[in-house]
Amino acid sequence: MQTEARVRVVEGGGSSHKLVARHHQTPSQHHRSQIGALSQLIAGGVAGAVSKTCTAPLARLTILFQVQGMHSDVSTLKKASIWREASRIVSEEGFRAFWKGNLVTIVHRLPYSSISFYSFERYKNFLQLMLAAEGHETNFGSDVFVRLAGGGLAGITAASATYPLDLVRTRLSAQRNVNYYRGIWHALHTISKEEGVFGLYKGLGACLLGVGPNLAISFSVYDTVRSYWQLQRPDDSTVMVSLACGSLSGIASSTVSFPLDLVRRRMQLEGAGGRAPVYKTGVFGTFGHILRAEGVRGLYRGILPEYYKVVPSIGIVFMTYEKLKQVLSGIEAC
Description:
Blueprint: H1 16-23, H2 27-54, H3 56-66, H4 82-93, H5 102-133, H6 140-174, H7 184-195, H8 204-232, H9 238-268, H10 282-299, H11 303-333
């Protein structure tokens, strides 16, 4: 996965006695924790939707570049450029086409981001409880492990739960002049009818292979840099710290996981619109096919608009999440 699920890693590891105390909550304390969980769900979902809407034009350009090699002569792709493709979209499809597929993106982002934020909190607390029960003291190494493992598990959980919407998003965004799929429900119905229910899960293997390392890197880089920054400069603006650390985490994770994301996109378009399949050998076969036909460069087709997108995308999602948490915490305190 790319920058689609950058979730905020909560502060600090907490000591063993705090974790045990959390485990033995009174009914009123349990009620307050549920309210806190609801705030996390709302903040995470809204943050993801706002971020995706703001960066939708660059996201669509990334997808269009990623899938160019499927049904085109590779030699013709050397002339492709962001400016040329953006101009084509405006002239052939209109300016609004930059947001093609954005509705399903938001529909997908709301549950995806919410599940990511919420499940990471739960996985992190569970892993910390396990380490405390085994007598491991909290230190930098255990904190990094918790962030990596919790981030990977949260990403896998969210991606598996919402994958059909991600596939529909790719197919709607990849459409150019002819709209074979007329909307979210029409796409879901058509894919199920023509390709079977499992057609809605094409590319899931590549997604799961990528989302774990992607989010693990994002979580660990974000929270490690943020913790160090706040330790050294505690008076700096929370918004600016979140913006900078979130952007750094997005660049790092996108660079590592981009080839698998490209493979996922192409597998999602297998058989779309009645076209004949191009790749028939699974995730690793598809990876090898692209490598042989287009070289290493082909695995990073579309990385430039992705880089342009990642800084504002990650910055917005983390910044929005932090601000919403502050607002919702104030409402809960009233």
